[in-house]
Amino acid sequence: MGTRGLILSSALLLLLLAQPLLVFAATPPFACDPANPSTPTFGFCQKTLPVDNRANDLISRLTLEEKIQQLGDIAPAIPRLGLPNYKWWSEALHGVSGWGRGIRFNGTITAATSFPQVILSAASFNPDLWYRIGQAIGVEARAINNVGQAEGLTFWSPNVNIFRDPRWGRGQETPGEDPLTASKYAVAFVRGLQGDSPTGERRSEQLMTSACCKHYTAYDLENWKGNSRFTFNALVTAQDMEDTYQPPFKSCVQEGRATCVMCSYNRVNGVPTCADFDLLTQQARKSWGLDGYIASDCGAVNLIYGAIGYAKSPEEAVADVLKSGMDLECGDFVQKHGGSAVKQGILSQGDIDRALFNILSLRIRLGHFNGNPLQLPAGDIPPSQVCSKEHQDLALEAAKAGIVLLKNAANLLPLAKSKVTSLGVIGPNANVGYQLMGNYNGPPCKGITPLGELRNYVGDTRFEQGCNDVACNATAINAVIQLARSVDQVVVFMGLDQDQERESLDRIDLVLPGLQDKIITKAAKYAKRPIVLVLLTGGPVDITFAKNDPRMGAILWAGYPGESGALAIAQVLFGEHNPGGRLPVTWYPQEFTRVPMTDMRMRADPATGYPGRSYRFYTGKPVYEFGHGISFTSYSYEFEAEAVTSIYLNSSLAPRATADSDILSYDIASLGSDTCRHLKFSATVGVKNQGSMAGKHPVLLFSRWSSSEHGRPLKQLVGFQSVHLEAGESTRVVFPLSPCEHLSRAIDDGTRVLDKGSHYLVVGQKEHEIRFIS
Ligand SMILES: *[C@@H]1O[C@H](CO)[C@@H](O)[C@H](O)[C@H]1NC(C)=O
Ligand SMILES: *[C@@H]1O[C@H](CO)[C@@H](O)[C@H](O)[C@H]1NC(C)=O
Ligand SMILES: *[C@@H]1O[C@H](CO)[C@@H](O)[C@H](O)[C@H]1NC(C)=O
């Protein structure tokens, strides 16, 4: 053991001896140190003063050059004011991550709980679970901060862009294609991460951490056939903006009270989002009431001058973004060119102070100017809270809740441990651990593999990788055939990995990579019994061949299930968990790839054969539809007999024919908030577990219109709740509905209207009609 090991173990010993000795683990340098004789003279250090006064006090003490240097993600120390440096950029998409600059895993803490990649957690349709994941990450972040391994507590998560196109490399990071799901995910996760209660009460003046809704807005393309996210100009209609792209951001800010929004690389209708006054200032800050800061995506500001050429000089780019409402740049373009922008007279001190006020107030709210972090709220969270049993159990619960059973012909699953005497495990995704984290991960607390976990169930488990890697250009067909022939049961682990879909890389195809389908088909052909196919992917894949082949008895989608995901898969295969996840995205057929990924339109255009996007508008036949997911039992639904059937609209208002309507509609704005409140009602759905196994089941309630003409969605998710039901048990699920919000639609110009006449609530095969009359 070297000197370093000795120091580490004695530090550990001290930690074990007594809690207050935590101070001996490297306390980070902090501002407003009581030991500094100047501290009492600094207004920004006075905890009892209002945040605004403290922020203005600090601003008043800075020179112009110091101010400009604070506007980049690496904000330098200002020793004369006792300020240490600050790193704004940290990530916590599904666990505290080492991506970014603020978090280091090179001290007492070397790992953090790695929850499932977001797309899998989304499949649970369970906001309570999303909240608890956010909360656990916030606790781990503070523990990391307390041992001096965080130079920042500002996390640039969640990613709430709509998963618009199945080829998108970062779709895995998002809660899927549905605006309501993405909105509810944003609210629950942000509340957890920032330390608020599940219902949104701010429990302490000091934020646990700061969350950031990204990437604002209409960002969902990396690099597809030469179209780069850095220069892409997203052409978005007002209608799609209103009912698809903006809702998750609006909820994230308004209800989730996220303290940050990140503007994206792309342009929207010609204007770089970071230079869009309307998007940043009018909508996010004024209309939605953002209380926090607006950051740029990393390097987005220099693109505005460079690759995009929207600004004619670096100074003009800096002036554009600061005047539009961006507050903090990820990068150093503002730090480099801010001074000359002021000299040229195109940027004022006032513009800079405005931005500074937003970022410094946020740091005050994180407790950065309250003295020793170990003596503040959350200063007593010890390193043992990171990778705690509780958090690792939560990671397992989340993986189990998300896994989707796509197919289970002849009830092949669950496998009976006692009957499977030998197990053949095949595929490049079977003997992998780290790959199960997806991207934007941290170092996980533990490393387990599906193969390793299955060995715990069946002693005689044999493995053949079959493909050289996930790309699968080279195969070992004969070895696969031999293994398939010789064992009792075959389970094949296929799908994607970060070499197929990731940041900066979209897919070209939707089918499985390389020769994966050949391996699966051969294994199924020679196996004694129908095989099980487990798919590890973020985005959807076209597996029509497996769906239709009776030799492929069961298909499971497990996303990238995080550090406990391998165990979750084993538990599902052997019936220790009854899967209840439902797909948060449409699984399109390969023919969808003829649609240009650059076409942002959600709505189908029959005139040109454009099929539309997502379950709300796609007119083609999906491989598996949004919300698909079966289980080892079955559930039946019933609308309550005495349910509301007609709702009177305010008769003192006249409905009007809108430009694109076939029936009379009410403009939501003219109905007014009082009337909208008046119209609220509840729909109650009875749910019964008809099978012989307990299970957790997300109930998805949709609405549809009498026609899908004039840009109306085919259907629209209006509510979801996850219920646990014992075998034979039934329950009632109450969905509070606000017609102005849930049953309205956006017309061409983005105006929201409520149609007079019939609407239908839909759950499973059951429908219930509601009529709006006056
Ligand atoms: C961890 O990394 C940071 C940044 O590279 C460095 O400053 C620090 O000294 C390292 N800590 C240890 C214990 O190695
Ligand atoms: C495997 O196939 C991919 C395309 O599917 C190709 O880019 C790659 O170079 C191939 N690798 C090998 C080792 O042939
Ligand atoms: C109906 O609309 C009128 C005019 O806007 C308003 O004054 C009244 O409060 C509304 N009534 C209800 C029940 O919402």
Task: Describe the structure in your own words.
The chain is globular and about 80 Å long. β15 (531-536), α18 and β16 (552-557) form a beta-alpha-beta unit. The protein folds into three domains: 11-385, Glycoside hydrolase, family 3, N-terminal domain (TIM Barrel, Alpha-Beta Barrel), CATH 3.20.20.300; 404-579, Glycoside hydrolase family 3 C-terminal domain (Rossmann fold), CATH 3.40.50; 633-773, Immunoglobulins (Immunoglobulin-like, Sandwich). It has 774 residues and is an alpha/beta fold. It has a six-stranded mixed sheet. A five-stranded mixed sheet has the order 18-28-27-22-23, with no helix packed on it. Strands 19-20-26-25 form a four-stranded antiparallel sheet. The chain binds 2-acetamido-2-deoxy-beta-D-glucopyranose (NAG) (3 copies). One 2-acetamido-2-deoxy-beta-D-glucopyranose (NAG) binds next to loops. GO terms for molecular function: alpha-L-arabinofuranosidase activity; xylan 1,4-beta-xylosidase activity. Keywords: Glycoprotein, Glycosidase, Hydrolase, Secreted, Signal.
